[in-house]
Amino acid sequence: MSRQNGKQGLATKARTHAADLMGRVWSGQFMESMLRPGSPFKKGYTDTPRNRSYVIMNNVLYHLHPVKVKRHGVKLSYTLCLGGMSFFLFILLTITGIFLMFYYAPTAERAYIDVQALSTDIAFGSLMRNMHRWGAHLMVLTVFLHMSRVFYHGAYKPPREFNWVVGVILLLLTLLLSFTGYLLPWDQLALWAVTVGTNMAGFVPVIGAQVKFALLGGVEVTAGTLLRWYVLHVLFLPFIIVIFLAVHFWRVRKDGGISGPL
Amino acid sequence: MPQIPEELLRRSAEAKAKALGLPVEQVLAEMRGEAPVTEMAAESVVVPAPKFVPTTPYQPVSEIPPDPPPPDPASAPPAAVTTVAEEEPAETPAAPTPTAEAPAAEAPPAAAAPEATDNGASGNGRLAAVVSVRPSAPPADLPEGVRHQRLLTVVKARAIQQVKADPTDKVNTWPHLMITEFTALLAMTAFLLVLSVILQAPLLEAANFNATPNPSKAPWYFLGLQEMLSYFDPQIAGVTVPTVIGIVGFMMIPYIDRNPSTRPSDRKLAIMLYTIFLTGSATLTILGVLFRGPGFNFAYPWVDGVFFDDLKDWVDFGGH
After folding, report:
1. Residues of B in contact with A69 (CB under 8 A)
2. What is the value of ipTM here, to two decimals?
3. By the 8 A CB rule, do B128 and B47 touch?
4. pLDDT, greater one: B139 or A49
5. Residues of chain B found within 8 Å of residue A88, distances taken between Cβ atoms
6. Residue B56 contacts residue B120 (beta carbons within 8 Å)
7. Residues of A in contact with B229 (CB under 8 A)
8. Residue A107 sits in the same domain as residue A182
9. Do residues B301 and B319 make contact, with C-beta atoms less than 8 angstroms apart?
10. What distance in Å separates the CA atoms of residue A183 and residue A193, rounded to the nearest whole number?
């Protein structure tokens, strides 16, 4: 009897100590400094209108969202989340893309072998490559559908005209990102799809040959093209698209938030 | 009075002397409070009557008006009142009266009555005055702790952005929007993960410059263009259509479509044109992806198979 009591006492004691420790960490200086006022993760958070505002306003999210949004814009059926999904896919593609960069060298000798090794030798390599490829196709699709949604809502009308222009540039950059990535596996599919694609650019009136030359870094697809497109794909185009994304999101808010209601 | 560094005092005295045409030493002496202030100095800094409204949003209210008063106190207040009246007739202050906090009872009407201040400046955001506190020695009849003010200019208190806030029905982003977005984000991640586990991304043989596959196809988003290339001259289909219509034309849509309405019933033409574009490009893309075989000739996917490597794992019509 007394042994049992002793055991219980110990368990209770341990639990109390654990709870006490958690409580101290949770309300200690570190958590206090990490979580800004109104954070729902903060101890003693209460669901009040004031705290609901603080969750956004006191947070990095304030760069994306205002504290309040129009009621119709919250409905899934209005935006279908297409713009948000495009951006989220861009983030996913960045993450998976960085993973792929660890195992890939953009040279004619190694590129194909490296991509092959991703499917055979490297843990999660196949999954990451698949996610990167299908995610890229999906992003082209969501960006295009997002544009169509915006058109059907007439959301490009004043004062949002310029943000539509930025959006078209973003679509163009998305296509370029996808197309430059297409060459990187350096297989027959990549080589000849890019050959066909850049041949089309060669038909540009007056400067066609020059455009094609600049794209390929020569008169036809070579190892130099591979390096060129790799740099464009992992560095230059992401850099440019992030700038335009920032402008795009900023203008959405500055032009009065979401459009509508119809 | 705070101690002003000598060189600053001298520099401002030089500027003032130049502006007023007075000797520097005299101005300097005035600034130091060693000599009486020249009447002219006070006048010259005041903006002519119709241009300013003698309301000062400057707080606290206990500060009393300038002494000597602004020039021409007889004409300035009416002009001022008129100006205010034009802006907000309903809130025109009555002839401003000195308040209890301003013990200098002989303050001119130009004095800032607190009501006028509130109505004119902060209440409607229409007017604000730039007021400077003159550091020179106060006349002897002023009570302890009371400072001079003088009106330098009056500026429109206008925001840098035009805020047209119509009352709209709004909800908190947290939790209403964030929940939807987070759910969509998780759903998309799950979808992409499942898709990537099931479907293998294509990888053909290593690139070979000497073996051209038949057919050679562009990525699917360019296949609509490639499809058009087989109907039209490349100068038209390959370039003019995508660059002129595709890029420039799309960017110019908001500047061409001047119809301000966003109601679908008001924009039938726009919706019709876009739908034609959408169905047209979808048709061309599907044709290019599925219905083009060797030599980019027409082929039926259920007879000849799918000639598009990205789709090889996806669809199988049993052909080939």
Report:
1. 170-171, 173, 176-177
2. 0.89
3. no
4. A49
5. 184-185, 188
6. no
7. 200
8. yes
9. yes
10. 8
Shared domain check, A111 and A219: yes
Among residues B63, B221, B211, the alpha carbon closest in space to that of B149 is found at B63
Question: How far is it, in rounded angstroms, from Cα B189 to Cα B185?
Answer: 6
- Counting one residue from chain A and one from chain B, the pairs whose CB atoms sit within 8 A come to 207
Query: B290: helix, coil or strand?
Result: helix
Residue where one domain finishes, among candidates A63, A86, A103: A63
In Å, how far is A122's CA from the nearest CA of chain B?
A: 15
Helix, strand, coil fractions of chain A, as percent rounded to 5:
70, 0, 25
Is residue B116 scored above 80 in pLDDT? Answer: no
* Whether residue A44 sits in one domain with residue A111: no
| Residue (of B28, B26, B13, B111) closest to B67 by Cα position | B111
| Cβ-defined contact of A195 to B234 (cutoff 8 Å) | no
- Asked if the structure places residue A238 within a domain, the reply is yes
Q: Which residues are CB-neighbours of B317 under 8 A, at least 6 positions away? A: B301, B302, B305, B306
Token pair 């001022």 in the structure block, residue: B80
Q: Any idea what DSSP says for residue A222?
A: -
A262 within some domain: no
Residues A11 and A120 in one domain: no
Do A109 and A161 belong together in one domain? yes
Amino acid at B302: W
Q: Of A15, A41, A63, which residue sits at a domain end?
A: A63
Q: In chain A, whose CA is at the least distance from the CA of B211?
A: A188
Question: How many folded domains does chain A comprise?
Answer: 2
Closest CA of chain B from A108, distance in Å: 9
Q: What's the domain range around A93? A: 71-254
Please state the rounded mean pLDDT for residues A127-136: 96
Contact across the interface for A130 and B200, Cβ inside 8 Å: yes
Using a CB-CB distance cutoff of 8 angstroms, which residues of chain B are in contact with residue A134? Answer: 192, 195-196, 199, 201
Asked, for residue A101, whether it belongs to a domain, the answer is yes
> Do β-strands B170-172 and A68-70 pair in parallel, antiparallel, or remain unpaired?
antiparallel
Tell me, yes or no, whether A59 and A84 share the same domain. Answer: no
B71: confidence class by pLDDT, cuts 50, 70, 90: very low
